Amino acid sequence: MSYLTDIEIAQRCEKRKITEIAEIAGIDGRYLEQYGNYKAKVDLSLLRDLEDRPDGKLILVTAITPTPAGEGKTTTSVGLTDGLRKLGKNAVVALREPSLGPVFGIKGGAAGGGYAQVVPMEDINLHFTGDFHAIGAANNLLAAMLDNHIQQGNALGIDPKAITWKRAVDMNDRQLRHIVDGLGGRMQGVPREDGFEITVASEIMAVLCLASGITDLKARLARIIVGYTYDGRPVTAHDLKAEGAMAALLKDALKPNLVQTLEGTPAFIHGGPFANIAHGCNSILATRLALKLSDYTVTEAGFAADLGAEKFLDIKCRAAGLRPSAIVIVATVRALKYHGGVPKAELNAENLEALEKGLPNLLQHVSNIKDIYGVPCVVAVNAFPTDTEAELALVEQKCRELGVNVALSEVWAKGGEGGKVLAAEVVRLCEQPCDFRFAYELDASIEEKLDTICRRVYHADGVTLEPNAKKQLRQLTELGFDKLPICMAKTQYSFSDDPALLGAPRGFTVTVRNLKVCAGAGFLVALTGDIMTMPGLPKVPAAEKIDVDENGVITGLF
């Protein structure tokens, strides 16, 4: 049997005009800034005008530890929201924007899949409303002003060897990771080592996604630390008088983007920080707007619950005063068998022994959500045709032993109709008691917070700080940054900092190599393992298969 590709399904969808979607969402036309017929930005004055309206329920979609077999968080998020609307509920989905790097690299698009997608799929995956370009421009304006300050006499006494701010581009380009610039003579700048990050790793992306409005945006931009002086004092964007111009570049990017699902459900797609280097969630503004406009807001956090969900709960919810009502943990039988040691090529065959060996990964994520954060949760098994009744029964049995229900999600094949069972369980959970709490308290020391995350969330034996990280810890504490939350930068492929340790490993410690402050975003980043802030393209990039014909029809996106 041949199936339509995601892009073919999306292109055959009869989209509604964005003005109609806005009407469904309860957005008056005067707040709408249209980008063609099928996408628009929503003016932030709407959020102020809805200030007195109560918030709806907040549902987070997260997942087990990623594998090459795939999990399907975005697909589940979209299908769940469509399923809620099929149950007669007023539901909206709020998601991150895709980055061009993964789209052209190995991951492909990030607009859902099958019959649970957001559209226009091609626009969302390629440029969209220009938010990421604005973020890259603001990032590089700050870099240009920094180097110009040094070139023009360096009144602040910035040490060129202590510059921490990098340039940014929204593309996987390993050639730019480490560069030397300013070459060519005295008038061409000051020669120094430099580098690029992918735009989604820029602190400005995190700032935009955590800002509560334009005033807060400017204040956060002003606090960004770009480097240090010869005597060790931090230099900020405010010291360079850069925050006003940066905010001017970002004023439209700050407004949430409105699109729709294949079934005409309103969807906010806004912001997209990486989840293993930054906090991995869509913008606070989009989430707040969705909560004011709906009774149920479905959102997702990047990678697994130990990364995306932990940061959503400990960073985003703390910063915005959000309280989740329920959490969905997405798993597939195939991925669980992979965690149990089955090679990717053999995942279609029934293997209860391997499934049982892989299940501890799911069960540890479930236990963390219930026992650490106190939030009711459900396991959504993203259905594959190769799943057997015995395998599905085993997953259900093990989850029930933890007091958690399992719902089969068939949204990829059936859209909202395939999400109704999951939606009904989510509605039930949203009425259950929720004793939401954070994994750690902010007044703990930096090392205590690191140790708490590693022991409680990862189930490690503790944390080890390399000498450089210890030195940075002392400096950050002396500068007064020790009360900020922690953003762990680690591999997404394991609870540990070793991507080869699958399942639910024990008997390991997490090694922190570097600590840095993102003062604008308002968190400390702890770098473990070999985390790249500028990915590279694979041997066969997805870009090789993307094309456009004379009618402007794009092919090859997935």
Give the helix/strand layout.
Elements: H1 6-12, H2 18-25, E1 32-34, E2 40-42, H3 45-49, E3 57-63, H4 73-86, E4 91-95, H5 100-104, E5 112-113, E6 116-119, H6 121-125, H7 131-151, E7 158-163, E8 167-169, E9 179-181, E10 192-194, E11 196-198, H8 203-210, H9 214-223, E12 225-229, E13 234-236, H10 243-250, E14 257-261, E15 266-269, H11 284-293, E16 296-300, H12 305-320, E17 326-331, H13 333-339, H14 352-372, E18 377-382, H15 389-400, E19 406-409, H16 411-414, H17 420-430, H18 446-457, E20 463-465, H19 467-478, E21 486-489, E22 510-518, E23 523-528, E24 547-548, E25 554-555
Parallel strand pairs: 3-16, 3-17, 4-15, 4-16, 8-11, 17-18, 18-19, 20-22, 21-23
Antiparallel strand pairs: 1-2, 2-14, 5-6, 6-14, 7-12, 9-10, 12-13, 14-15, 22-23, 24-25
3D structure, described in words:
There is one protein chain. 35% of the residues lie in helices and 19% in strands. The protein is an alpha/beta fold and 558 residues long. Strands 1, 2, 3, 4, 5, 6, 14, 15, 16, 17, 18 and 19 form a 12-stranded mixed β-sheet that branches. Strand 5 (112-113) and strand 6 form a beta hairpin. Helix 7 (131-151) crosses helix 8 (203-210), helix 9 (214-223) crosses helix 10 and helix 13 (333-339) packs across helix 14 (352-372). The longest helix is centred in the N-terminal third of the chain and has 21 residues, at 131-151.
Low-confidence stretches: none
Structural category is alpha/beta
The CA-CA distance between the termini, in Å, is: 19 Å
Structural shape = globular
Main sheet characteristics = 12 strands, mixed
How many beta-strand elements?
25
Gyration radius, rounded: 23 Å
Percent of residues in beta strands? 15-25%
